[in-house]
Amino acid sequence: MDDILLEQDTRLVFDRSKLKTIDLWSSAVKYDPGAIWMEWATTPPFFVEVGGAPQAVVTRYEDAKIAFEDHERFSNVKRPWPGTEKYYYWQGLPVVTDNDPPAHTRLRMLLAPAFSPRRLAAVEAGIKAYVGTLLDEIAAAGAFDAVADFGRRVSAHTLLGLLLGLPEQDWQVFTGISDGLSAYARLPPGSPAPEEFLKVWNAGQAYCDSLIAARRAQPQDDLVSHIIGAHDDAGKITTPELYATFIILYAGGFSSIVTYIAWTLWRLCRDPEQLALARADAAGLNGALAESLRTDPVGWTALRYATKNFNFAGLELKEGMPVIMVEGASNYDPRVYEDPCRFDLRRTQPRENLSFGAGVHRCIGSTLAKLSARIAVGAVISRFQHLRLSDPDFRPEVVGGPKERAPKAVPLRVD
Ligand code: HEM
After folding, report:
1. Which CATH number fits domain 2-413: 1.10.630.10, 1.10.10.10, 1.25.40.10, 3.40.190.290?
2. N or C of the chain: less Cβ packing under 10 Å?
3. Does residue 400 have its Cβ closer than 6 Å to ligand 1?
4. Residue ranges per domain, the chain?
């Protein structure tokens, strides 16, 4: 299909003077993006070539915000276009992120029972209790990895245990899917779905199918049954829609929470002054969490498709063309954030950064994400007064799915 598109499609003809020969996903960007993102953030929209076809890139804060908020011109519904295979990880499932209103509005409503104030209050109490037990273990060990020993455990407990109410022996089905997404990040243009991912994906689908059937037959007092109960009358919700709901609740949140906690601890441990300020009071901790979200956004690009031919800030977009919004760069726009490469938790954030997106797709889990990170990071920095990087010069290896920038490990000492 891609070859046919490449040969015949006039939409693939573009103004090459607007082409930048950069690799958006190079290891330089993954490892140390600040200066690069700051430079991109002052650049008007441009093209990159992927798999022989143009894709539009939007980096300036104002441009990215417009693109996030204008779902009529910038659609979430996937269109066939060369070089976009790495974004097909949901295997065509009706997920909220791959739809526009009105279908999107309905799918997003299915997620609502997960974030009711009553449920969030119960989850908050559960996270606090669990983090307490983890810190006892860490104190006894004297050292820990903020990713494997802490963030992953907090996140799995929060989402799979407290939110979805699944037994711990089944969590592996889901963590396997998150880990498998990194195979998509490495997928060369034109390649089929990676076998290693399909294996864990199919296992997840089989697991969710039987869970949904069991809860339909015999509802329990858990989120799965509540979502089914709230929306399943008169067969209004299909099993694929339910699977999509559970998988996006889990996959949208799991590595995001891990990464948010780990980057924040890494940032604070690099800088004793910032760590002291974060420890001083609630404003310091909240400032650290807001600044870490800006400097190290968990997902640093978002994808849309142009719904028609139009000129966007000087760039001629063609109908169906992928548009990559680099919110990582927008968070470093020097016209919005003074001296953007500096991590400073005292910074007054003049505009909300784009790390949770904007518009109808704005992150529905943002309250839970902030809540869990505040509890987890707050508990670690207040309990361990000798908290420090195991190696003071440590810089994390960076991994994750196609849109992610996640530290592989952050080794810390507390003794
Ligand atoms: C620091 C943590 C998090 C960050 C930085 C983050 C970031 C984002 C961003 C940027 C979007 C919009 C993507 C786009 O417009 O293309 C989004 C959407 C979404 N997020 Fe999060 N997220 C986080 C945590 C969570 C958590 C904990 C959950 C669930 C428990 C979650 C579930 C979702 C869902 C379901 C959507 C899709 C909403 C829609 O399409 O209407 N996220 N997130």
Report:
1. 1.10.630.10
2. N
3. no
4. 2-413
User: Is pLDDT at 235 greater than 90 in this prediction?
Assistant: no
Ligand 1 lined by 96 (C-beta under 6 Å):
yes
Residue among 280, 316, 92, 300 at smallest CA distance from 201 = 92
pTM above 0.85?
Answer: yes
Ligand 1 pocket test: which of 98, 159, 256 has the largest number of ligand atoms within 8 Å of its C-beta? 256
Cβ–ligand 1 distance for 365 under 6 Å, the answer: yes
> What is the pLDDT confidence band of residue 1, given thresholds at 50, 70 and 90?
very low
Kindly report the protein residue whose alpha carbon is nearest to atom 9 of ligand 1.
Answer: 356
Q: Is the CB of 377 under 6 A from ligand 1?
A: no
CB of 197 within 6 A of ligand 1: the answer is no
The kind and range of the H/E element at 137 are: helix 117-141
- The answer to whether residue 234 scores a pLDDT higher than 80 is no
pLDDT at 350: 78
Which residue's alpha carbon is nearest to atom 24 within ligand 1? Answer: 253
If we measure between CA atoms, which residue out of 41, 52, 60, 76 comes closest to residue 312? 60
> Is the CB of residue 357 below 6 angstroms from any atom belonging to ligand 1?
yes
CA 2–ligand 1 middle distance (angstroms): 30
355 CB within 6 A, ligand 1: yes
Spell 43-75 as b/e; 16+ CB within 10 A means b. Answer: eebbbbbbbebbbbbbbbbebbbbbbeebebbb
pLDDT of residue 5: 55
Q: What distance in angstroms lies between residue 253's CA and the mean position of ligand 1's atoms?
A: 7
Kindly report the CA angle at 182 between 300 and 150, in degrees rounded to 5?
80
Alpha carbons 256 and 158: distance in angstroms, whole number? 12
CA 294/CA 290 separation, integer angstroms: 6
- Mean pLDDT for the chain? 93
Query: Which atom belonging to ligand 1 lies closest to the Cα atom of 354?
Result: 10
Distance CA 95, CA 77 (A): 10
Phi, psi for residue 306 in degrees, rounded to 5:
-65, 130
Residue type, 34: G
